[in-house]
Amino acid sequence: MSPAERLLDFDQAMALFDPVLGLEVHVELNTRSKMFCGCSTAFGAEPNSQTCPVCLGLPGSLPVLNRRAVESAVRIGLALNCSIAQWCRFARKNYFYPDMPKDFQTSQYDEPICQGGQVTVEVSGQPYLIEIERAHMEEDAGKLVHVGVTGRIQGADHSLLDYNRAGVPLIEIVTKPVTGTGAQAPQVARAYVAYLRDLLRGLGVSDVRMEQGSLRCDANVSLMPKGASQLGTRTETKNVNSLRSIERALRYEIRRQAAVLVDGGRVKQETRHWHEDVGLTSPGRSKEQAEDYRYFPEPDLAPIAPSPEWVERLRRDLPEAPDQRVARLRLEWGFSEAEMRDVTGGGALDRVAQTVAAGATPTAARKWWTTELARWANQAGVELDDVPMTPDQVAEVQALIDRGVINDKLARRVFEAVLAGQGAPDEVVRSLGLAVVSDGAALSQAVQRAIAAQPEAAQSIRQGKVQAVGALIGQVMKDLRGQADAATVRQLILDELT
Amino acid sequence: MALSRDDVAKLADLARLELTEAELERLVGQLDLILASVASVSQAAAAEVAPTSHALALVNVMREDEVTESLPPEAVLAMAPAVEEGRFRVPRILGESA
Amino acid sequence: MNELILKGAAELSQLMADGQVSSQEITQACLDRIAQVESAVAAFLHVDAERALAQAQRIDRQRAAGQALGPLAGVPVALKDSFAYAGAPTTCGSLILRDWIPPYNATVTQRLLDAGLVILGKTNLDEFAMGSSTENSAFGPTHNPWDLERVPGGSGGGSAASLVAFETPLAIGSDTGGSIRQPAAVTGTIGVKPTYGGSSRYGLVAMASSLDQPGPCARGVLDAALLHRVIAGWDPKDSTSIDAPVPDVVQAAGQTDLTGLRIGVVKELGGEGYAAGVERRFTEAVGLLEAAGAQLSEVSCPHFPLALGAYYLIMPSEVSSNLARFDAVRYGWRVNDDGRHSVEQVMRRSRGAGFGDEAKRRIILGTYALSSGYYDAYYGSAQKVRTLIIEDFAAAFERVDVLISPATPTTAFKLGERAGDPLAMYKADLCTIPSNLAGNAAASFPVGLSPEDGMPVGLQVMAPPLADDRLYRVGAALELALRQQWSGPLWAELVRREESR
Q1: C3-257+443-500: CATH topology
Q2: What is the ipTM of this complex?
Q3: What angle (nearest 5°) sits at the alpha carbon of residue C127, between those of residues C121 and C129?
Q4: Which of A219, A234, A318, C233 gives a 20 to 30 Å CA spacing to C52?
Q5: Which residues of C touch A292 (CB under 8 A)?
Q6: Which of C13, C23, C132, C155 is catalytic?
Q7: Do C344 and B16 touch (CB under 8 A)?
Q8: Nearest CB to A53: which of C104, C208, C238?
Q9: What is the pLDDT of residues B17-67, one digit of tens each?
């Protein structure tokens, strides 16, 4: 990896330049079978066990298009407000690479199935319009493992190939250049990908797991001197595998490019790789020669001509758009705009909704996902979706509180234990003995002990100074290591002394 | 449009074909002759003629999204020039993917 | 000479049905004949004797048990080596695939097996079906049984030669620019290219996907029709296959009256560059067709002279892409994997060593025709010419029911005669290429021997898409008239010559 390059301070960079974004998102569809053959798309199978003559590119094999993949592509296009092509073809993108069984990728070139859409995303209450250039269908490649000390392509001794992923359907969604985002550019990019993720999940067309590669983002950025209208030279950053890293990688690229430009240099048009661990991008190996993909219409596949009736039917059956859903849920849950922003900004919307569906109140669900769990995710460097606690479990903890089995303070310890993998909420409550003491005998013994320990306080209460009860409650709680319901204890003390 | 030796070498590189010097020389001459003989095609192709990629006008040929049986991995790997850990083994890769 | 090897598929089927001969006897007779003549003809790359005899035995048992069998059950067939046949080497005549044994069957292969045919082995071809003489096979040329110093045509020279070497009554070919019809013409056999999409390409190793089409080869018209019926029809594994009933080719092969049939002679396919002997036999055949009741007229297809040029842009473009997968990663011959060379170098060297001259020529030509900056002038223009050819056919078929022409400009040339001159070689497909570009059905039928060199001459019939039956109707009428004239089939001459030696 190249040594760290000079970076300009972000605010300084923003004072001099306007960033222009371009985002290419690859979505792996969750069809049961591959794009052009009947092999399973299930993740994590034994290497090369989900392959056949077609997806191995054996001589003589021919592709047959998966109807569901086309349907998903059209639905995605409609959800992104694109127009759907009346007639389009696949094309062959010709280039050699060992992970591509046919040494061409079956893709779409100048006839994408979806064109010209737009979505609006929000950052800090400010709406940003993102224009969609196109969304097209293509197939995924096989998976390479590089064998050698580095584990990376550079310095590898040899490489190994598993073609289970080869031929899995992909949709590539490409934005038009996004301008006018200023210093918010990294957050806008992140918000856009989060929006796409929610949208795709809502459509049910993809697992949208960034860490498993079912949602991949290539982030392009260039800088334009303030007041200029000529676009600068862009770089394309790959290997951006989480929402967080989109923001970080863009921030890094903006600062790096700004430093290059301020120093009088020129930004090189290149592909760069994001390294999450060290937080920087490094240039990819430069190509021997400019690629010439020699696209031509795929002769082995018939053109696609989605009928207007079919497209209209799919449009009618689209689920609610993410922004409409947010507006609807805000009203249903009775949240303020700020509260709702807390939820959506943190990527907690689905989790909160699922927790509410599991029986918690919206307020309780919001509280846990935006505080306790958000903090944990942030420390662990993962997305909320990957927090090892289900919405059902969160609802269960809240139910335990509501039933008086635990209190808020104990609940935090339950969360810690569940997140540490020590079991389900009821299990940890039991195994760690976290339940509040509700056994009457044990409680009154503790009250007796407290009265004995603090005779002056007890005397004050007997004399009518009820406010002294706090000291005794504290004594009881200390005695029972917090595992008691304060209201119950208060009542017991007052019953005893008045 | 005459092709030079360098042009042909570049095309061979794009097509991942190693050619000997003798092969290169021979191809340059032959390709020129062939290209001259097909020149009439470009001349005849008027702008208003629509190109044909598929002789027959079939559209929307699709299959249902159903899983069918894959090949046994042993049969898949039996064809391979080199295998390691159930995967196809290839020498080190210099270039990056597109 | 064992009489069985001279009999056609229909006759053999009848003999088996009547219990007069077994499939094992027929198969053994073919295998014996192969053993006898292969050293001279070299039609086969692989003889699958064991599995052939096992299949023959299975069919005999089923017949003995009274099971219902298809009309060609137990009849031997030879398979061009570009069709995947699980368990048998499938080389496509190329070093790069010399050790490849496919783990699956082509749809055509599967249909042959399902119909009970006995696959004798794999026949020789120009490498990846690219050539007109079978000289481009990495494993040596096939010889024309009419004159062993001449080529049997190509690319399907092995399949065509095996028929007139009496090694098999039936063979399978594939036709991209004439690879079934041109070898049929120069060997005096029958070869049919069905309508594009009429038979499945699944498992046929692709040369040019938008042009390739599997089809039947035989010594008699009815035999070809019976084989056509077995292999044709919709295949869900081939997106370009047509989901429509197969025209009744067998019924058409039984018709011999051409009354009312309008036949157009293509004006552009004749004259300069056509051998006098070819034109003479063609003209005589036209007379026979007229005598059989057809209405003959001349039809102009003005863009046909552009077909060869368009073909030599579209075909190599698709070839350059289809042959990319032979990269020595998943299968095929790998060269220089010694730990010192990168995968890129190994790919280059393996492809350089594994492909022959013609394959390399077409890969480079296609890479050029598709490359940025040249696409419109070459590939794009060729696709427009393709439209013009389709329009020529459409206009012609409004006036006539079928078109005819010589199948090839000349008879079989000598081995080595055109090997160093690609352009001369390409011209062998002058007459056959238009039907590949347009996707319509076409066939070649023998119409006699050229008075110039004593070599066979073929007549091509072209029918509209999905009117494959018309080919057989014309072929059957022609066959009947000529056999009456010759007192037997054309190939009987070969038998006479062999017996007199």
Answers
A1: Amidase signature (AS) enzymes (3.90.1300)
A2: 0.96
A3: 80
A4: C233
A5: 371-372
A6: C155
A7: yes
A8: C104
A9: 999 999 999 999 999 989 988 889 988 888 899 999 999 889 999 999 999
